[in-house]
Amino acid sequence: MTDAADLRRRTADLLAAHTPGTTDRLDFLRARFDAGLAWVHFPQGLGGLDAPRALQAVVDAELAAVDAPDNDPGRIGIGLGMAAPTILRYGTEEQKRRFLRPLWTGEEVWCQLFSEPGAGSDLAALATRAVRDADGNWLVDGQKVWTSSAHLARWAILVARTDPAVPKHRGLTYFVCDMTDPGVEVRPLRQITGEAEFNEVFLTGVRIPDAHRLGAVGDGWQVARTTLMNERVAIGGARTPREGGMIQVASTAWRDHPELRTHDLHQRLLKLWVDAEVARLTGERLRQQLSPTLNSVRAGGTPLGQPGPEGSGMKLAFARLAQQISGWEVEFRGEAGLTYDDWTLRRPEGVDFTGREAGYRYLRAKGNSIEGGTSEVLLNIVAERVLGLPPEPRTDKDIAWKDLPR
Amino acid sequence: MTLTTPEPEPDLLYSAEEDALRAAVRALLADRCDPATVLAGLESGRPHDPGLWRALATEIGVTGLLVPEGLGGAGATAREAAVVLEELGRAMAPVPYLTSAILAVTALLGCETDRAEVADSLAALAEGRTLGALAVPLTTAPGDTGPAPVRADAAGRLTGRVTSVADVAGAGLLLVPAEGPGGPELHAVDATADGVRTEPVTPLDLTRPLGHLTLDAAAGRPLARGDRARAALDRALLTGAGLLASEQLGLADWCLTETVRYTGERTQFGRPVGSFQALKHRMAALWLDVASARAAARNSADALSGNDPEAPLAVAVAQSFCAPVAVRAAEECIQLHGGLGMTWEHPAHLYLKRAKADELALGTPGRHRETLAGLVDLAAP
Questions:
Q1: What's the pLDDT at A293?
Q2: Confidence of residue A307 (pLDDT cuts 50, 70, 90)
Q3: Do B295 and A278 touch (CB under 8 A)?
Q4: Eight-class DSSP state of A75
Q5: A61 vs B6: CB contact, 8 Å cut-off?
Q6: Whole-number Å distance between alpha carbons of A116 and A126
Q7: Residue B232: CB partners within 8 Å, gap ≥ 6?
Q8: What is the pLDDT of residue A234?
Q9: CA distance B59 to chain A (A)
Q10: Is A186 an 8 Å CB contact of chain B?
Q11: Residue B3: its pLDDT value, please?
């Protein structure tokens, strides 16, 4: 069993063999992966050491101390947060070996082809079709929307309909899609901030070899749920220091601008500060539950890469806080709150919730309660899966997808 | 196999020992403190349930958790005491645990524990033989340590009046902050001594009685003076406030659990009322509040269990967050129980009364946010 001392030793060995300052960035990242120090809770040979997830902090601290290059997690969040845990859980050995290393080093960016114009909250109603050809490979046609990083991506995780004659949840299959296929067309989708962080993706006769199928034919929904739960944890569960993220920006603004302070804004800021600190602690508690350390080993933890519905709660809290804090800040800034930094259509490489000016943050945060599961759907998930309350009445559950009214 | 991990983060979970302690307390309360029993005892005129207190003290030995083993206690920490308070809050148990086993014990621990007077008192409180009460208004917040309303003369005679002291009626040992000739002092006073009088108050929260304490040249035994007396009082209030968050958590958790259970069973319009989305969303939002309160309360208990310099911040965060959550949980519990929630017979009102009184106890949420503003450099305009 790996412990902290062992990890420090392994990290020191890595640094001795690959001095960060003189080693090429990509060579260093590959060496780190091969040493099992990429994500220590992953299996040996796949960038990890089968160690408790909590021990990753030991490695990260040692590497940060010497300013070693990182894999720019902000740029490859979809791969790290959604694709990797899904591939780890459902992929074949060959798929894991092929995809995980370049995913982690950032050589290959991933995107997520899930949402469609007619299938947002009701994702299982999606219409993109995958048809099997004579050789057993797949041809895909359809349209996806709200795809982050599609313009940078080498690969996509894709859910498509392989059997329209069964009810919607049962006829889906999960694939890895090659974004360089000539049938893939990516168009920027401009949003209310002025920038185009997302894309529409049109799929026309895209070829996918059967070797790039993840999970069994017809099991796509089950595989997708793993991705979605990880997505909520990724959105709501990023580890932040005390007074980190959005509340840091607001607190700093308060300290820097005594001339703008009012009693009302002070009261509201203190409430938000407390809410942000408690949200941080709640996320920390969830992480401790997912990755037991020895001083509090829990039985019955969730299996690797499989957060429970509690992650939906974190995502709800994150969205509400981001909106309240950014709204507070626009109001606090007075005349500056009437201005916007730049409406130019840009193509950001990653999402930065705290970058730019107050107006941008306020507008971008509006998406936090929509993307990755709307707050209304997440409340249903908590009510039904955590609290066990009766499910919503569903009229489409037992009807073949092809017969659903559209 | 031992894992040594860096511990930059507090331990926010429950250890196996804490889970076992919880199970023991919960089993005892299920046996002796069901809602019907609590309701029946409310108007009995007794300040608390002495049989239940004895069982907590002798059968499972939780009254001395905060007292070191060498002084006759269990030598546990605030983490374990917090688990007990969660269960007492969940059961709305009418026992003076917060006042005697937390506030009074912590005040004594801030004095010189090698003095016989202090050590004997601690042993008596640890065993549950004696009940202690810290003579401050229940609304006092950590840091609210201005001049005490009681004056001590050079001979240790105490005169003054302290209003709204929690659980004072049943207490044998009164710990009285006083202003002496040379500044603040902390005295021990026997409740039966001459010149000691308590008058009961009709409380909003029937499960935590209040009384006004009047001292008229009552004999006090000084336990600490000056900065030591002030620090002992402050640590007691900080510990009380920080652990009150766990009582509020247990209370809120009961309200949520009971509301989910009831709305799943109660049928209107041909379906369980808990299947209506408006109600489901309210309960889901409450679940998130309770899950968050649990993290805040655990963080506070963990910070109080060592000598963590960040304890005041953790306590201020926990109190300002958990108090409104408990009130909201109790208010939602009443509303979502409909007419049943408005009956005396259903225990929901006990939880509302406790939650609302707890919101004022040991500092309001706003008062704790003021403290926080100073701690995190967010100065008022």
A1: 42
A2: low
A3: yes
A4: T
A5: yes
A6: 6
A7: B106, B107, B108, B109, B110, B111, B186, B223, B224
A8: 62
A9: 26
A10: no
A11: 37
Instruction: Give the number of C-alpha atoms closer than 13 A to the C-alpha of residue B163, restricted to the C-beta side.
Output: 3
- Beta pairing partners, B42: none
Least CA distance to B321: which residue of chain A? A274
Is the pLDDT at A59 greater than 90? The verdict is yes
| Residue B239, helix vs strand vs coil | helix
Strands B210-219 and B157-166: antiparallel
Residue B89 near residue B247, CB atoms below 8 Å: yes
> What is the tens place of the pLDDT at every residue in A238-251?
678 899 999 999 99
- B263, B280, B317 ranked by CB distance to A278: nearest: B317
Please state the separation of Cα A182 from the chain's center in Å: 27
Are the CB atoms for A217 and A173 separated by under 8 Å? yes
Q: Which two tokens stand for residue A222?
A: 């089950």
B378/A255 touch (CB, cutoff 8 Å), yes or no = yes
**From the candidates A315, A389, A392, which should be mutated to test the interface with B, based on the most B CB atoms within 10 A?**
A389
pLDDT at A144 over 50: yes
- Alpha carbons A320 and A366: distance in angstroms, whole number: 9
Q: Which tokens hold the place of A241?
A: 């220091």
Using an 8 Å Cβ cutoff, are B39 and B350 in contact? yes
pLDDT for residue B2 is more than 60: no
Q: What torsion do the CA atoms of B246, B250, B253, B258 make, to the nearest 10 degrees?
A: -170
| A113 three-state secondary structure | strand
Running DSSP on this structure, what letter comes out for residue A400? B
What is the rounded average pLDDT of the residues B44-63?
A: 93
- pLDDT-derived band at A395 (thresholds 50, 70, 90) equals confident
Query: pLDDT value at position A305?
Result: 39
Residue A174's closest CA among A134, A225, A135, A136? Answer: A225
Q: What is the pLDDT of residue A304?
A: 38
What amino acid positions of A are annotated as catalytic residues? 231
Query: In the A/B pair of chains, how many CB contacts fall below 8 A?
Result: 159
Q: Which residue has the higher pLDDT, B1 or A196?
A: A196
Cβ within 8 Å, pair B277-A392: yes
How high is the pLDDT of residue A230?
77
3-class SS of residue A182 = coil
Cβ atoms within 10 Å of B4's Cβ, excluding its own: 13
| Higher-scoring residue by pLDDT: B257, A301 | B257
CB of A285 within 8 A of CB of B295?
yes
Give the pairing of strands A155-161 and A110-113: parallel
Report the mean per-residue pLDDT for chain A: 91
Specify burial of residue A192 (Cβ count, 10 A radius: 0-12, 13-18, 19+). Answer: exposed
Contact residues, chain B, for A379 at CB < 8 Å = 280-281, 284-285
Residue type present at position A197: E
Q: What pLDDT is attached to residue A312?
A: 85
Gyration radius from chain A CA atoms: 22
pLDDT-based confidence at B5, cuts 50/70/90? very low
Smallest CA-to-CA distance from B332 within B275, B376, B274, B372 is with: B274
What value does the mean pLDDT take over residues A349-371? 88
SS3 A158: strand
Share the mean pLDDT of chain B: 95
Cβ neighbours of residue B113 closer than 8 Å, sequence gap 6 or more: B68, B71, B119, B122
| DSSP string of B183-197, one letter each residue | EEEEEEEETTSTTEE
